[in-house]
Amino acid sequence: MKEANKLTVNKIIDGNRLTLSLDGHLNAASAIELDALLSESLDGVTDLVFDFSELKYISSAGMRVLLSTQKKMNSRGSMKITGASNSIIEIFDITGFTDIFTIESRR
Q1: Which of 8, 26, 41, 100 is buried deepest, with most CB atoms within 10 A?
Q2: Which fold has domain 3-105?
């Protein structure tokens, strides 16, 4: 994976809350990695927070991971997205995902 397309995920667990801070590009390759990380990290989590403050790009593959994660979290607690840039919020708006996700934008 080229450095420009890299995704770094910082994982913070605080009781039943899991915060994942994403930095870089959530594309087809990194979406697979994020999905695997989520599969091994959600046990006992009732409050999931995605911090998108440093996320530069999200592809449809990344959106699918978020959607499937939201479906899992619906039965066990809550999921929210914080810090998303205006361009990522616009993608959520166009796709109708603003009606599905709890989003707190940075602006």
Answers
A1: 26
A2: Transcription Regulator spoIIAA (3.30.750)
